Q: What sequence folds into this?
C-alpha cells in the first residue's frame, strides 16, 4: 500500500462518526480495552463493535492481542489499543523510514557508558518538561492522584502507554513498552534503555517537581512511584 492508499484507508476508517469515537476511546484509554467494555460504553451489540474494530485494524489504526491473563474457559478475549505507528496526513504522506534509519545510526554511534546516556536523556527530558509546564501555566497537581493523571496523560502523548495502579497510599505508573525499541526495531547494546531511563526520569522530575521517582521494573519497562 503506497502513501496515498494508506491516507485513503485512514480517511475511510475515521469518516464514520461512531467508528471515530471508538478509535478515540481506544487512544485515550490507559489500558488495552476489550470489546465488552466498548459495547457497554457505546450501547452497541458486541458484534457491531467488532465490525468497527475490524475496519480500524484493517486501516492500521489499532492493533489487537489475545488476553492471556484472562480467566475462564473458552477462547481468550481480544484487547485493542492504538497502533504504535504515527498517523501521517501530509500531502503526499512522507515515510519515516529514512528518519528511523538515521536515528538508529545515531543511537548506535553514542558512547556505551550507561551513566553518560542516562545523564544526557535526563537533561533533555527536564528541558522539555520545563517548556511543557509553561504551556500548562506552570501548575503542578498537589495530590498523588492528580500527579498520576498528569504524568499518564503526558506519557501517553509520548507513546509510552502507561498503566496506573494504586498500592496503599501510593500511585504506580508502568510504561507499556520500550519507546526507542519500537521506533528503531532493536536495542543497541543497552543504549536505548539508558536513554529512555534518563528521558523518563527527567520528564517525571520536572513535571511534578520531584514528587515522583523512576525505578526499573522488568527489562526495559520502567515504573514511576508517586
A:
Amino acid at each position: 500500500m503506497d502513501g496515498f492508499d494508506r491516507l485513503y484507508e485512514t480517511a475511510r476508517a475515521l469518516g464514520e462518526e461512531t467508528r471515530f469515537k471508538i478509535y478515540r476511546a481506544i487512544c485515550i484509554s490507559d489500558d488495552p480495552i476489550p470489546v465488552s467494555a466498548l459495547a457497554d460504553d457505546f450501547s452497541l451489540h458486541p458484534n457491531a463493535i467488532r465490525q468497527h474494530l475490524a475496519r480500524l485494524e484493517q486501516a492500521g489504526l489499532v492493533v489487537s492481542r489475545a488476553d492471556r491473563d484472562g480467566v475462564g474457559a473458552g477462547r481468550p478475549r481480544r484487547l485493542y489499543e492504538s497502533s504504535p505507528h504515527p498517523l501521517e496526513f501530509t500531502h503526499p504522506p512522507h515515510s519515516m523510514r529514512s528518519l528511523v534509519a538515521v536515528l538508529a545510526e545515531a543511537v548506535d554511534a553514542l558512547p556505551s557508558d550507561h551513566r553518560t546516556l542516562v545523564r544526557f536523556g535526563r537533561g533533555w527530558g527536564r528541558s522539555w518538561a520545563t517548556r511543557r509546564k509553561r504551556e500548562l501555566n506552570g501548575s503542578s497537581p498537589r495530590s498523588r492522584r492528580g500527579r498520576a493523571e498528569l504524568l499518564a496523560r503526558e506519557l501517553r502523548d509520548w507513546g509510552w502507554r502507561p498503566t496506573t495502579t494504586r498500592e496503599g497510599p501510593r500511585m504506580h505508573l508502568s510504561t507499556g513498552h520500550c519507546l526507542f525499541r519500537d521506533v528503531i526495531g532493536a536495542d543497541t547494546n543497552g543504549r536505548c534503555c539508558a536513554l529512555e531511563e534518563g528521558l523518563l526520569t527527567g520528564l517525571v522530575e520536572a513535571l511534578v517537581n520531584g514528587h515522583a521517582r523512576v525505578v526499573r521494573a522488568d527489562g526495559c519497562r520502567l515504573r514511576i512511584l508517586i
